[in-house]
Amino acid sequence: MNDEKVMIGVSDVMKKMGIGRDRAYEIMKSGEFKTHKVGRRYLVHYQVFENWLIGGKQTPSKK
After folding, report:
1. Which of 21, 33, 42, 61 is most buried, by the most CB atoms less than 10 A from its CB?
2. Given this model, what pLDDT does residue 30 score?
3. Does the model's pTM come out above 0.90?
4. Contact 58/46 with Cβ under 8 angstroms?
5. Start-end of H helices in the chain
6. Alpha-carbon distance 55 to 38, whole Å?
């Protein structure tokens, strides 16, 4: 089994983009891509986030 995360959180977004926590939360809550709130955590599918970063489609591709 692959150990890569399928869903990433705010701290992962911060690291990937080199931004602070407030800005990462702002992006996650912006509605520009689909996020899931689990308890107090905001999560996004890693592929949706990657596609958003490069300006592509917002849905994960089927494998």
Report:
1. 42
2. 93
3. no
4. no
5. 10-17, 21-29, 46-54
6. 26
- Intra-chain end-to-end CA distance of the chain, in Å: 15
60 touches 48 (CB < 8 A): yes
| DSSP secondary structure letter of residue 46 | H
The two tokens of residue 20 are 């602070």
Using CA atoms, how far apart are residues 5 and 3, in angstroms rounded to an integer?
7
Please name the residues in contact with 44: beta carbons below 8 A apart, sequence gap of 6 or more: 7, 8, 13, 28, 33, 34, 35, 36
